[in-house]
Amino acid sequence: MILRATDLKKTYTIGGRPVEALRGVSLELADRSFTFVVGPSGSGKSTLMHLAGALDRPTSGTIEVAGKDLTALTDDQLSEFRREKLGFVFQAFNLIGNLDAVENVLVPFYAKGLAPGMRAKAKELLGRVGLAERLDHRPKQLSGGEQQRVAIARALLKDPALLLADEPTGELDSKTGAEIFALVRSLHRERGASVVVVTHDTRFIEPGDRVVRIEDGKLVENS
Ligand SMILES: Nc1ncnc2c1ncn2[C@@H]1O[C@H](COP(=O)(O)OP(=O)(O)OP(=O)(O)O)[C@@H](O)[C@H]1O
Ligand SMILES: [Mg+2]
Fold it and tell me: How many angstroms is it from 127 CA to the middle of ligand 1?
């Protein structure tokens, strides 16, 4: 299993009032699976992605990703786990402002030192997502969709065990959106990454994909 959640709950407290974003989600996703998470706005999709991405901790329940019980790890161990195993394409967890596109793609590798050829590979991947002419742009000098594409190039370079994408095509036109999905599919098919993608764009669902529907913090459909 790439992901196993058991009775996962997340309650935020805002101004002393509890907001139950996840109300007991149990879910198993097989290695090399491709999963769509769908559901209405505010239903808990991004919350689930944050927990799966080791960016936040559940209020109760357990979550295992790539064989690791995330609730048992220290903050430092979680950071290392994220760096080693996960790819992210999130709107709110994106790029570092004072780095250009190439450097942003390389960020996850800085901690361990860049292997030879990495920089060239980063540039090649930025070319594949249509940003060959934007290599030295910083995030503020890129459109929202271009920033998403830098995040995708970064995820592709990392070769993660699990790629988490939260509305990856939300800010893209339909042609660029289709290209992004094609890249994510190739990461899945050619390199065996498991993928979980939150999207309203259900036309990209293919036979064999999992579809998980969340409403009001609960799984209502799991196929
Ligand atoms: N940091 C937070 N603090 C307090 N409440 C939060 C926080 N993050 C999310 N929530 C609340 O938790 C619920 C679930 O939010 P979440 O972001 O997971 O929804 P979503 O399904 O991703 O929605 P959307 O499709 O609009 O992105 C919402 O009611 C939201 O207001
Ligand atoms: Mg969301």
Answer: 34
